[in-house]
Amino acid sequence: MAAVSASHHAAADGADPDDVVPDDVVTDDANDATAGQATPALVAEWLQYLAKERQLSAHTVTAYTSDLARFTTYLGARAQGDAWDWGTVDRNAIRGFLGYLSRLGLERRSIARTLSAVRGFYRYLHRDEHVTANPARSVRTPKIGRHLPAHLDTGTMQVLMDVASTRAQGGAFNDVRNLAMLELFYATGMRLSELHGLNRDDVDLVSLRAKVRGKGRKERIIPFGAPARLALINYESRRDELVRLIGPTSDRAALFLNPRARRLSRRGIQLAMTGLIALVDAPEGASVHALRHTFATHLLDAGAELRAVQELLGHASVSTTQIYTHTSVERLKAAYAKAHPRA
């Protein structure tokens, strides 16, 4: 390995910032049946603009493709066969669309994300003078409850590491690789998408740093410790063996590979980590993202500065990072209520 050098996407002509599209979630509304429908030319133009010029992640562009396809389908049904264009859509039509999404059973977070996509699309249309106004601008965003993120306490995290280490001692490629991924997730707090995109040259085992490409393709450097380094060295040896065995079809750039020596998919990473988490007494529903929450919570519990944790996590806004301070406070309150005689 060579040396290396929300929350969410900016609002201008694109998405609203922070906590609209959870980048680490692999499955989302993009699996909806409408996602496969052809999008009108202006929608396709906007999506290309987001991908090429705004450089939003492929995950976000896929989600917005689904959102705008669903919006287009709704508007067509609402017109009942009559001609319509983007300039004829008003605030009431968009509010009706949000109501339709609610009746479909979508969660408020998904509805808010969809409204963000519609707003961004209309900003783009208005900027290029395809419409005279943005009808989505005055539509109120659904209130999204702030849920404290699931995380593993230090004892459970140690048990998880012990389980993964024991499995890796058997020498199976997947188990050695999974331990390296787990160590790196916990050591850096990187997103699933960031770990998925890691190349060998992005990780420096001498200076103990990893270069990741976050949201908006912004790069940042994250340090990691000796346990992650050891796990990566052991994995690197097994990886080289696999590449030699598979031969020229191997992906020589990607860091984490599947048994066919191709870059391990996001879904593959998700299944590997959730499979390990399921073996310990983790909070119900804990997923790969819980490892990121665990990283942040443990740092703040140990006295790390909020701004430093923000930088490590790659959050655009410190308000996104502050939710982890709430996690710490709630746990302290619970301990107080359990232990203090006058609680």
Which SSEs are present, and which pair or pack?
Blueprint: H1 41-52, H2 58-79, H3 91-103, H4 108-127, H5 154-168, H6 173-188, H7 192-196, E1 203-204, E2 209-213, E3 219-223, H8 226-246, H9 266-277, H10 288-301, H11 306-313, H12 318-321, H13 323-339
Antiparallel strand pairs: 1-2, 2-3
Helix pairs in contact: 1-2, 2-4, 5-6, 6-8, 6-10, 10-13
CATH superfamily of the largest domain: Intergrase catalytic core
Q: What is the number of helical segments per DSSP (H or I, 4+ residues)?
A: 13
The SSE string, one letter per element, is HHHHHHHEEEHHHHHH
- State the distance separating the first and last CA atoms: 54 Å
Strand content: under 5%
Mean pLDDT: 83
**Range of helix content:** 40-55%
* Structural class by helix and strand composition: mainly alpha
- Give the strand line-up of the largest sheet: 1-2-3
Shape annotation: globular
Rg over alpha carbons:
22 Å
Number of domains: 2
- Number of distinct beta strands: 3
Give unreliable regions as ranges: 2-38
The level-1 CATH class of the largest domain: Mainly Alpha
CATH architecture name of the largest domain: Orthogonal Bundle
The description of the largest β-sheet is: 3 strands, antiparallel
In CATH terms, what is the fold-level topology of the largest domain? hpI Integrase, Chain A
